[in-house]
Every structure is written in C-alpha cells, then in structure tokens.
Design brief:
This protein has 477 residues and is mostly beta strands. It folds into two domains: 307 residues, Glycosyl hydrolase domain, family 43 (Tachylectin-2, Chain A); 141 residues, Jelly Rolls (Sandwich). Helix content is 5%, strand content 52%. The strands form seven sheets. The chain has a six-stranded antiparallel β-sheet with strand order 24-35-26-31-32-33. The two termini are 17 Å apart.
C-alpha cells in the first residue's frame, strides 16, 4: 500500500502513483505556481510520456489537476510528449515541447539502442485560467536539422528579447559533443535557425546512449541572473552550470565560471521566475532502484524542493531552499550554545530524535574536521563528514565525496542544511554545493544524532525540526 510506504516522500511533489521524471514548463500564472512533469500513467517505470499537472499557491502545498498533455495517435507526439517549457504569450499560456514518434533509423534523432524516435518541437496553448485544457497545433513548429551526425533534438527552453522569441534546443554531434541550437520567431510558430549557443566535448567513449558519452546534452536552460547569464545542462548523468556573457548579436554564450549543480540523484532541472521575480530551480530526484523494485513499490521519482538561485560577486552559482519550505517546520529543538557545559550539550544531543523520516536540520560548524551520523541504533541512515585535507572531496554524504568551492572552505564556518523525506535526502553546504541522496533502508527506531566529543565541540549551532507532511496519506495533495 503506497500510503504505508515509509520510503515515499511526504513533502516533495510526486504523483499519486507510477513514474515521474523531468519538471516541465513551471510557470507562475495568475497568482498560482503551475508545475508540469514527465509522467507515465500506466506503470512505475519509464514509458508513455505524458505531462502531469499540479498547482500550488506557495511551491510547497500542491493539488493535482488532470493530465495536461497526452500523446495524440497519428500525431508528431504519438509516442510521447517529452520535456518542454511554458511561456506567457500576450496573455495566452503556451507550451513548446518535444513530440516523439517512432521512425526509421535514418530519420530518427533519438537512437538509444532501444528506441528510434524522431523528435520535433510542438506547440500547445491554453485559454482557461487554471490551465487545465490544452489545444495542440497539428504539425510541429520546428523540424530537426538534416545532419547525419545529429545525436538528438529535444527539451526546448524559451525567452524573449524585445518583440522576438528565442528558443534553445538540446542537441549534439556524434564524436564531437553536446550543443544547444538557437532559433528565433515573432509568433512562436514560424522559426528560423540562428546559431549554436554553445558546445561541449565528447568524452571519447562509445556508449549505446549518447548522453552517457557527452555527445548529447539534455534539458538546457539559459537565463539572466545577477548581471550575467547562467546556462544549465544535463549530460553524462550529471547537471552542470556555467555563468558568463551572452553575445546577443551572434547569440553565442561565453562561459566564465563552471560548476556541478548537484552531485547526487538529481537531473534534468528547469527554472522559472517566481512571484517576486526570483529565479526558482526545480529538479527531478532520480531513483537508484531496479525496474523490478520500482514496479513492486508502485511509484518512482519526485520533484526536488524549490531552490532559489543567485550569483555571488565572482559569478559563482548560489542555491538555497525557497523560504516557503520553512512553513512546514514543527517541533523545533535546538542544541545549547558552545557556552553551555559540554556535558549538558551532550545530554541534550542524546535526547534529539527524528521520527517518521520527515525532518530538517540546520548546522553551523567550525572549519575543522567533523563527522556526524543519524542512526536507528542498528544501522546508519545518514552520515555527514567534513575533512578539509581531502581536496576535491572535502565534504561527504554517506561516504560519497563532494568537492567544495574554494570560497567555501576558506570560510571560518560552514553552514549545512539537511532535508530528510522518506528515502530522499537533500543537503546544502554554504549555498555553494548541493547533494541529493537516496537512502532505501527503513529505520527500526526513530533516528538519533550521534557525533564524537571533538565533533560536538566544533558545532557552533544546531537546530532541527520535524517537517509536516503536505498530504494525509502520501498518495496525493
């Protein structure tokens, strides 16, 4: 029974059952946040891609609405409505998304050893205030370029410059690397090819799926932020960010800073503008279980918590959980300050518990060796460690090493935020590094926080909250 599955998240967005993946077309529309996402209505494994739809007043509490897009038999999306974006076109909500249909290998743009799909960019519009019903154009608005080396053509994103729309499409060239293609339009329907926004490098490996070899980028996004432009893309099962300058005359992006967006089970992110103009980042939290395990569980994947992204003065990407997430906090417990006797701090620490796998922890630690764990007394659920001498993997989550930017490790203190939600763990370090983990062990008892005396001495502050579920039954919201 899904409602009784302790591994199923309680405050992350996910459908009532079955498979979900990429966030699609998030948009703030008439006072509500609308999220669409890749969804298989018939199974807890990938396939038969639809666009599911949920709406929220605050990006935290969600209500599911009817499916927004479904494949049209005989149409350009008959085998799947893949990822895309939503925009406000003079008061009309508009999707541009990738439609796929099976095709001979010579005409296919996606050839992964299992499927031969031809990918085209399709358009749909909605005229109702709740965005419940969508009308598709019968024909694609952009066909893929005729290039025998093309490795893919999907996941469009859009932005507006004056009276012109620009659209980027994820693509790549075999034995060369991933790239983003740019198109321009006055009306979102007639498009002209403009440029190659940017390109990556092939990693030299021959793989059945060209995403794994870096020959194809997925789910790119480009947006203005902090006086720069930021590019996000997914390839080799990782997500990267770059900040730099956009040459508008040539529509070329020139990278100045780069980094890893999230080092864990996080993929295919998409951004949107929030109610106050802030840039909100969403990502698909992936599974680490087999298809057989997913079918048995009856559900797969969830949406990350919303993250607000900014740039620091040097152009490095910063991420923090959206403030609205704090609405879910209950039952605060806080460790006494270092001025309190060590024995009293230890006694208090021993009383702290995490129940029902729904919690947030916020720590500040000195820039010194540190380790802690959450355990049920039999096995460790979560371990965190900081070792300044381990260059390139200074921080670790469940023994997975994470590199911290130099600007983080040079600080006197580290700020660590941890969210635990069923089998999902999201960790943030000083807003400059993030790691999403999946933990499938079911604790036998409430989790207790454990650390050595030397580690406890390095804790400047520690607060913990139980997090209230957004649904009474884990099934829907």
């Amino acid at each position: 029974m899904l409602a009784a599955d302790p591994l199923r998240p309680q405050f992350h967005l996910l459908p009532a059952a079955n498979w979900m993946n990429d966030p699609n077309g998030p948009i703030y529309w008439r006072g509500q946040y609308h999220m669409f996402f890749q969804y298989n209505p018939g199974a807890a494994v990938w396939g038969d891609m639809h666009w599911a739809h949920a709406v929220s007043p605050d990006m935290v509490h969600w209500k599911h609405l009817p499916i927004a897009l479904a494949p049209t038999p005989g149409g350009p999306d008959q085998d799947g409505c893949f990822t895309g974006s939503a925009v406000d076109d003079h008061g009309t909500a508009t999707f541009v998304y990738t439609g796929v249909r099976s095709a001979p290998a010579a005409q296919a743009t996606l050839r992964d050893g299992v499927n031969n799909f031809r990918e085209t960019q399709c358009l749909a519009t909605s005229q109702d205030g709740d965005l419940r019903t969508w009308k598709k154009l019968a024909q694609p608005v952009i066909e893929p370029p005729a290039d025998a080396l093309l490795t893919g053509f999907r996941d469009p994103f859009l932005w507006q410059e004056g009276d012109a729309w620009y659209l980027g499409v994820a693509s790549g060239l075999r034995k060369q690397g991933g790239r983003v293609l740019i198109y321009r339009s006055k009306d979102l329907r007639q498009w002209e090819s403009v440029s190659v926004l940017c390109s990556g490098q092939w990693n030299g490996k021959d793989t059945p799926d060209v995403v794994d070899s870096g020959e194809m980028w997925e789910c790119p996004d480009l947006f203005a932020l902090g006086g720069k432009h930021v590019l996000i893309y997914s390839t080799e099962r990782k997500v990267y960010w770059e900040s730099g300058e956009l040459d508008r005359a040539k529509m070329e992006f020139h990278s100045q800073r780069q980094g890893l967006l999230d080092s864990g089970a996080y993929y295919a992110p998409k951004t949107q503008s929030g109610a106050n103009g802030e840039r909100i980042l969403w990502g698909w939290i992936t599974e680490k279980r087999s298809d057989d395990e997913l079918r048995k569980a009856g559900w797969a994947g969830c949406m990350s918590l919303p993250r607000v992204v900014t740039l620091d003065a040097e152009g490095r990407l910063l991420m923090s959980p959206a403030p609205a997430v704090a609405k879910l906090r209950t039952n605060l417990v806080a460790l006494p300050s270092p001025a309190v006797a060590a024995a009293d701090r230890r006694t208090f620490l021993q009383k702290m518990r995490v129940t029902n796998l729904a919690a947030e922890m916020s720590l500040r630690i000195r820039n010194a060796p540190f380790a802690m764990k959450l355990s049920d007394g039999r096995q460790d659920f979560l371990t965190l460690a900081f070792a300044p001498v381990k260059s390139g993997s200074e921080f670790s989550v469940n023994d997975v090493g994470i590199a911290l930017p130099a600007s983080t490790t040079e600080r006197q203190e580290l700020s660590i935020t941890v969210f635990i939600d069923g089998s999902v763990v999201e960790v943030f370090v000083n807003g400059r590094a993030a790691h999403t983990a999946r933990v499938y062990g079911i604790p036998a008892n409430p989790l207790q926080l454990e650390m050595s005396d030397s580690a406890l001495q390095n804790v400047v502050s520690l607060q913990a909250w139980q997090i209230a579920p957004i649904s009474p039954d884990r099934l829907t919201t």
